[in-house]
Request: fold
Amino acid sequence: MKQAIIIRKDLNLGKGKMAAQASHASLNAYKKASLTNKKIWELQGQKKVVLKIDNEKEMIALFSKAKKEKMKPALIRDAGKTEIPQGTITALAIGPDKDKNIDRITGHLKLY
Reply:
């Protein structure tokens, strides 16, 4: 079991902003996960991977692919109070779910 957190690299977010957006994505995806997936993931150490994606278009395509696979991804839009405009899509998280399910969606992406 793992969770994938995907961050847009074209936004050039500061480290703190990136960490905040990744945290928002992680927590929101966790809330959407099934109780069974949550429990197994917690028992296995809550494995996460942080991946990078080139731009918003690719992020939305990945979000759509995850939804088509009956997963419950969390897409994060920024509130616009610091570095970037309100509504900017910054991050996406998928899972916790089985590694093979996550890899089917995100396996082509590189680690951040």
